[in-house]
Amino acid sequence: MSADTTAGTNASHADCLFCRIARGEIPSRKVYEDDEVFAFHDIQPKAPIHFMIVPKAHYDNLYDAGPQQALLGRIFGLCGRLAREQGANDGFRVVVNNGRVGHQEVYHLHVHVLGGAEPLAGAMNRF
Known about the structure:
Layout: H1 17-22, E1 30-33, E2 37-41, E3 49-55, H2 62-65, H3 69-85, E4 92-95, E5 111-115
Antiparallel strand pairs: 1-2, 2-3, 3-5, 4-5
């Protein structure tokens, strides 16, 4: 579970869904891209606005990416700007599913950004 800073050149990550999306091998509805991160709309949205931000370098989850504080800061720093650009002007939710217990489905670190015109419904309305 170590980080691959070459994002996809490691054979064990060659078939990673999000690595392939970030490399442009699988089509997506891009929200944002720079040298370190790629953001795209979720194909099964849970809210009117639902996109994900992924690092281009492969990290399975937050356990692996913990030492990458600058990268994590960059990802979380983009959430507000990109949410506003997508129309979430009155708030949004950020979700990171981590590991089996956290219901992570794709083992490439990703941050969900969800929003819309009305408060989000669901089991996690308030903590």
